[in-house]
Each structure stands twice: as structure tokens, then as C-alpha cells.
Design a protein that fits this description.
The protein has 230 residues and is of the alpha/beta class. It contains 5 helices and 10 strands; from the N terminus they run αβαβαββββββααββ.
């Protein structure tokens, strides 16, 4: 059984970095946490949200459906991104995976930092709205094995469908090449290195306490016009 990583200084330092970034969608700094299903995205996003003083977390499996694992960009834009761009609270309809239907609208406040967690949170439709993209570094087979073990034999058919859809998604719309930071779980906590889309190239441990430089230096990303199984 995999133990839950400690928050520690690593997550605190990433939280400090997120706070310093230029808002990317209205007044909000959107931080994407992407990676393969089962790679630990939900746990990491939860730790980061706590370090940010209870930052809201939008789980993309609330926007996906059985029929559209990755068909949520338009819902995300209408229900979340457009209101944030206007400085307004968002309201999205969470999908109930047991009842197979959308539930009552759920509010999402335009906090200074909002986390978007789930497979595909770094896709091309969402990247222009992100202040920071984090990729959880665990390869697909290992991630999927963790997810299958966690969910049990009863969801084997679902995982068969999911893995096929995920492979197809990342083949057509990869996220990792555009990550600002690559994070992996280690024996105690996490460590990171600058992502492929970062100007910095020196590997650094998240347990270091020195001040972190935003991956894109002092030049902010231009504001936009404006599934998780971890």
C-alpha cells in the first residue's frame, strides 16, 4: 500500500511560487495539475491547496462523463473560465459517476489561486488560461497499475476503456512537453525539476528552502481573452 506523501516544505514552496505568478484568467492564477490516471494528482493538489490556505480545487472528473472522458473543454469554458475572466464566481454542474447524470450547480469562487486537477488539465484548450502547469512524473503503466489496484476488480472494464482513451488523448494533445514543473513523489514528500516549457534547466529539490524563480522568469504569460483518477 502506497503511503500518503507529507506536505512538508516542498509543497509550501510551490504554494509561494503560485502566489507570485501573474493572474492568468481574470483575477485568478489557474494552476493545472496533470499526469496519467493514478499518478497522484489528487493527493498532490490537495496538499498544495492546503498550503495555499484552502485554495479551491476543480477536479476534471466532475466535468467528464462516461461518454466523454475528454469532451469537457466547452463546459469548462462556459461554466468556469468565462466567469473567472469577468471576475465573477463560477458555477459548474458536477457529474455523478454512479447516477450517470449531472448534479446541482456547485459554486467556485475566483480565489487568487485555483487548482485545476485531472488528466488533460494541460491540454491546448486550457493552457492559455494557466499561470502554471505541473506534471506528475510517473509513467503510464505504473500509474494505471496504481489506479486499478486502488479501484479494484469491479472497475476493470472502466479502466480498460479509460486507458485506451487516455493513450489516444495524449497522443493527439500531449501535456508534458508544455509543463512548467515536473513533480515526482519520493520517499519523503516530493521533488521537482523544471519542465520542458521552463526556461530554467537545473534540477532542484522541492525540499530546498531558497526562493524559487517562476519557470518563465520575469516575463508573465499573456492573459487569455477570456479526468481525474489520481
Amino acid at each position: 500500500m502506497t503511503s500518503t506523501p507529507d506536505a512538508g516544505p516542498a509543497v509550501a514552496e510551490l504554494a509561494a511560487l503560485a502566489r507570485k505568478l501573474t493572474p492568468s484568467c481574470g483575477p485568478v492564477r489557474l494552476v493545472g495539475v496533470d499526469g496519467h490516471a493514478g499518478s497522484g494528482k489528487s493527493t498532490f493538489a490537495g496538499r498544495l491547496a492546503e498550503a495555499l490556505g484552502g485554495a479551491p480545487v476543480l477536479h476534471l472528473d466532475d466535468l467528464a462523463t462516461h461518454n466523454e472522458f475528454f469532451g469537457w473543454p466547452d463546459r469548462l469554458r462556459r461554466q468556469v473560465l468565462d466567469p473567472f475572466a469577468r471576475g465573477e464566481a463560477a458555477r459548474y454542474d458536477p457529474y455523478d459517476w454512479e447516477l450517470r447524470r449531472f448534479g446541482a450547480p456547485r459554486p467556485l469562487e475566483p480565489a487568487p489561486v485555483v487548482l485545476v486537477e485531472g488528466v488533460g488539465s494541460g491540454r491546448r484548450a486550457l493552457r492559455p488560461h494557466l499561470a502554471l502547469l505541473v506534471w506528475m512524473e510517473l509513467d503510464a503503466p505504473a500509474s494505471w497499475a496504481r489506479g486499478r489496484h486502488r479501484d479494484g476488480i469491479g472497475l476493470s472494464a472502466f479502466w480498460d476503456d479509460w486507458t485506451e482513451a487516455e493513450m489516444r488523448h495524449f497522443a493527439e494533445d500531449p501535456s508534458r512537453p508544455f509543463a512548467d514543473a515536473v513533480v515526482r513523489q519520493v520517499q519523503k514528500g516530493y521533488e521537482w525539476l523544471p519542465g520542458p516549457d521552463s526556461a530554467a534547466r537545473t534540477t532542484r529539490s522541492l525540499t530546498e528552502r531558497d526562493e524559487l524563480t517562476p519557470p518563465h522568469g520575469t516575463v508573465p504569460k499573456q492573459p487569455p481573452e477570456c479526468f481525474n483518477s489520481a
